[in-house]
What we know:
CATH class: Alpha Beta
Low-confidence stretches: none
Number of strands: 5
Number of helices: 7
Shape: globular
Oligomer: single chain
CATH architecture: 3-Layer(aba) Sandwich
Strand content: 5-15%
Number of domains: 1
Largest sheet: 5 strands, parallel
Radius of gyration: 17 Å
Amino acid sequence: MVSGVERPLTIAVTGAHSTGKSTFLARLAHRLRQHDLEVATVADLGEQAQQIGLPILHSHTYTSTLWIMTRGISNELATWPHADVLLVDRPVPDALGYYLAALIYRGETPDPTLLGHLRTLAAQHSMHYDLIFRTELDHTVPLGTNKARDDNIRYRRLADHHIATVLHDLGIGYELLAIDGHDTAITRATAFTLTQHTGDDLATI
């Protein structure tokens, strides 16, 4: 935790769409609440962006990316006074990865000043994430059906690649969340959270 900043322990999951992020976070929230922790969740903002007329997925722009990043930060901050643990479905750097993927998909070159602004915002806010998981794209797993999805395989691969690239380039640490590794990751995240709250290594979670 950054010195002088009172906030909940924060766990985030990043990765391409329909890779199990929301399902994983719902299971993790249930597990943490069994330990009497107050858990808040910040959800994916893509659908809200689309509802107000902003382009998403392979149509992402600087404006839509900045909106998602700043709205996500605002939503996270709103939970800080009220939660023990904050779970974030798509941390701030995720939006930057999606934007870069969209630019490559369309064959466009970003404005270096605007891109620098987004990179700085992503890097600086990421100090508030205690644990980040990154999903891996498995092409054998079909897209979800609970919301509008982009079934463009090329763009999904670009998004997966550029999210990983953003994390690497900005020096943001993460752990891989394999499609068959959710149980292990939930155990890991629960143990991490309880240890941070109690200061003890807990044998039983």
